[in-house]
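Good morning,

Attaching, inline, the backbone tokens for the sequence recovery test we're adding to the shared suite. The designed sequence is right after.
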């Protein structure tokens, strides 16, 4: 009598019993069944398959995160070394360009002067990028030291505004300091001026012709609050946190994406805070605080 086989799929783990009844050619069925018992073993993985994959993914994320942190530290050191080595040749190039523009090496045509001034602008931008990278690497390594002393903040604001007055005039933007009391603070004056320069320069960069940029300082309880406001296009809410990250730019306006991250870090090193309030189409207001 030929043998027949059967395949059962998706049987749960555990014991199973099958009854088999014989049948003759006249289709008479044997009333006494034959019993067959067998056990389906448990699978090797007792937990759902996605659990194991999830664990493996988590382990991979942890490993990769550690690698990124180590690489970021090495990259910060490498950037510091490279940036430092670039400062000397950049300074020399700047001297050569200034000598050419001043006619020290001989007369130049108007067309040559325009080209040299363009090169000088590009060199200044590259120099600011290098200085920014150096500042960031020092801050991230904890090697940037503040030289704090008492000074009049209102006077420092006026000096920075005067330095940027020519930029505002070329763009047709009104730049002014709000009237207020003389405010004295204890901080690193050069670093505070750096923060002011970054904020005012950014405001001028994004404010269209006929617009206005204003700087105001006032006391708020035990702190001093500085506000740089503009009548530019404003910053979308989705970008208002990201603008303080390295190299992030809302619009491509020739910046480096380092000014705001450096400024916020400098303010935090003084024990203060920096934030932005902005609506699209209504301009922006950047605030930072210092100890009074």
């Amino acid at each position: 009598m030929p043998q027949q086989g059967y395949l059962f799929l998706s049987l749960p783990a555990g014991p199973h019993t099958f009854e088999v009844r014989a049948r003759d050619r006249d289709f008479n069925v044997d009333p006494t069944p034959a019993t067959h018992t067998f056990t389906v073993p448990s699978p090797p993985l007792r937990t759902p398959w996605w659990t194991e994959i999830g664990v493996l993914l988590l382990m991979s994320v942890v490993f990769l995160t550690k690698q990124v942190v180590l690489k970021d530290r090495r990259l910060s050191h490498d950037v510091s070394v490279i940036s430092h080595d670039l400062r000397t040749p950049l300074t020399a190039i700047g001297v050569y360009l200034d000598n050419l523009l001043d006619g020290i090496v001989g007369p130049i045509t108007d067309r040559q002067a325009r080209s040299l001034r363009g090169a000088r602008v590009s060199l200044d931008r590259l120099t600011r990028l290098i200085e920014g990278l150096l500042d960031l690497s020092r801050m991230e390594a904890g090697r940037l030291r503040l030289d704090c002393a008492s000074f009049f903040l209102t006077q420092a604001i006026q000096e920075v505004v005067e330095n940027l007055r020519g930029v505002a005039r070329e763009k047709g933007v009104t730049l002014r300091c709000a009237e207020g009391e003389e405010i004295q603070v204890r901080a690193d004056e050069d670093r505070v001026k750096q923060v002011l320069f970054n904020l005012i320069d950014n405001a001028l960069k994004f404010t269209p012709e006929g617009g206005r940029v204003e700087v105001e300082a006032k006391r708020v309880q035990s702190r001093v609050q500085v506000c740089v406001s503009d009548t530019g296009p404003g910053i979308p809410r989705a970008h208002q946190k990201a603008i303080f990250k390295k190299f992030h730019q809302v619009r491509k306006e020739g910046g480096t994406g380092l000014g705001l991250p450096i400024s916020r870090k400098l303010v935090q090193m003084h024990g203060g805070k920096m934030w932005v309030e902005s609506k699209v189409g209504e301009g922006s207001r950047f605030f930072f605080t210092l100890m009074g």
